[in-house]
Amino acid sequence: MSKTLAIIGGTGLTELEGLTISKAHDMHTPYGSPSAPILEGELLGHRVLFLARHGHPHRIPPHKVNYRANLWALQNLFATDVIAINAVGGINQAMTTESLVLPDQLIDYTWGRDSTFFDGENGQVTHIDLSYPYSESLREGLIAASHDLKIDLMTSATYGVTQGPRLETAAEIKRMENDGCDLVGMTGMPETVLARELKLNYASIALVVNPAAGKGDSGITIKQIEKALNSGMSKLLKVLGKFVIDYYE
Ligand code: HPA
């Protein structure tokens, strides 16, 4: 079966530059509507789907994103692979603002989100394996792309996913650090597990946009986050473009 990539754009990426759009799919799913119409088009000669996780314009907070509708709709448009783009705070001191990081592990601190397609309603109880939450093949593809471009990409990190929409307290970040988290964000779950439930290959590429609470010299400001998004996103998109060219020959 041929592979089709879906890109889920997060904060700072509601449109995908270079995507020649052929169709905007207004989807309805058994779980409701996705965050935005799913754009289908060509990116560097390959069929790609694009979805703005927070809507376009950006209006849906992380805890209100309809993750089930988003993933279900992408699969219905024949996506096989999903690359999620996540803006995150850096907990690990090495993961400074504007760093690009490929998480390889995840800890879920969210609550109250619709986090499974297997909610027992069809009379079946299913426990899926999430020991290694990200697709190694997609991760390797992204690592190869960054090597070829000589763009730094950190390839091992644990992504702690908080409920939001507020940012964390310094004590919460300390606790997360003790738990082993390197990054903190609000959208990695349940997106990751839902992709696994649908047997989609899934990887996340994270852009650090601020030091996590208590890790910087002062509080976290939106201005600081926007600055990092503006300067870091182009680097991330270069890696993604090279990945698309090489991985989908
Ligand atoms: N915490 C949680 N989510 C985030 C952060 C943060 O510091 N920065 C960007 N997304």
Architecture blueprint of SSEs:
Layout lengths: L4 E5 L10 E6 L12 E6 L2 E7 L14 H10 L4 E10 L9 E2 L3 E4 L27 H14 L8 E4 L8 H10 L3 E3 L5 H7 L3 E11 L10 H26 L2
Parallel strand pairs: 1-4, 1-5, 5-10, 7-8, 8-9
Antiparallel strand pairs: 2-3, 3-4, 5-9, 6-10
Helix pairs in contact: 2-5
Hypoxanthine (HPA) binds next to strand 5, strand 9 and strand 10.
Describe the structure.
The protein has helices spanning 67-76, 136-149, 170-179, 191-197, 222-247, and strands spanning 5-9, 20-25, 38-43, 46-52, 81-90, 100-101, 105-108, 158-161, 183-185, 201-211. The protein has 249 residues and is an alpha/beta fold. The protein has one domain (5-247): 3-Layer(aba) Sandwich (Rossmann fold). Strands 1, 2, 3, 4, 5, 6, 7, 8, 9 and 10 form a ten-stranded mixed sheet that branches. α2 crosses α5. It binds hypoxanthine (HPA). Hypoxanthine binds next to β5, β9 and β10.
CATH architecture identity: 3-Layer(aba) Sandwich
From N to C, what is the helix and strand string?
EEEEHEEEHEHEHEH
Question: What is the name of the CATH class?
Answer: Alpha Beta
* Estimated structural class: alpha/beta
Largest sheet: 10 strands, mixed
- Strand share of the residues? 15-25%
Helix proportion: 25-40%
Distance between the termini: 14 Å
What number of domains? Answer: 1
Q: What ions, cofactors and ligands are bound?
A: hypoxanthine
Number of helices: 5
The overall average pLDDT, rounded, is 95
What is the 3D form?
globular
Spans of at least 5 consecutive residues with low confidence: none
